[in-house]
Amino acid sequence: MSKRASAKYKIDRRMGENIWGRPKSPVNRRQYGPGQHGQRRKGKVSDFGVQLRAKQKLKGYYGDVTEKQFRKIYEEAARRRGDTSENLIGLLESRLDAVVYRSKFVATVFAARQFVNHGHVNVNGRRTNIQSYVCKPGDVIEIRPKSKQLAIVLEASQLAERDVPDYLDVDHQKMVATYTRVPGLHDVPYPVQMEPNLVVEFYSR
Q: What residue spans carry the region label Disordered (predicted)?
């Protein structure tokens, strides 16, 4: 099993939830944590523990971004006007790897990070290989011509397990997506409940 795949499944097991809604998630069979004592870890969780879990779940969902990156995103969300938790979700969903994943150009967010990193994506006609590139409303994201026939791209667009959200306008024939607006929490089709307000509390301590 690849390092990325095993990391993905570890996050699911640690959280005890199928956070990407994938049919192959081990949580569908075993709803307890990994390791020798996974079934016995059911003690009372402190407020800090609840906040930490919310942060780890949200951070893990976006491909297990590093703590340094995630904190930087939070600080930008806090700096902006408006609700910090909504800003946080908007910034996370504006990342290029997230847009590629939401557009169903690839099957998983981990694949999206790798796909962008390998230079398969153009933004507004220019090759962009930075996963954390922040898309703006109106940006056009396109799979590069030579990459459109890759098996992972063709298979992902046929996946029935998730839909493209309405803040993206996607043409799977041309493999082009337009990022139409920055979403809020209720616009994002998370398979499980995310609690960005607890993430804000965690970093505000």
A: 18-46
| Alpha carbon distance 33, 49 (integer Å) | 15
Contact 112/177 with Cβ under 8 angstroms?
no
When divided into structural domains, the chain yields a total of 2
Give me the CATH number covering residue 74. Answer: 1.10.1050.10
Which residues are paired to 170 by β-bridges? 177
Q: Is the pTM of this model over 0.90?
A: no
Residues 103 and 181 in one domain: yes
**Angle of the 47-61 helix axis to the 196-204 helix axis, nearest 10:** 120
Q: Is residue 4 part of a domain?
A: no
Where do we find the tokens 């944590």?
33
pLDDT tens for each residue of 47-56? 999 999 999 9
Residue 125 inside a domain? The answer is: yes
Q: Cα(60)–Cα(101) distance, rounded to whole angstroms?
A: 14
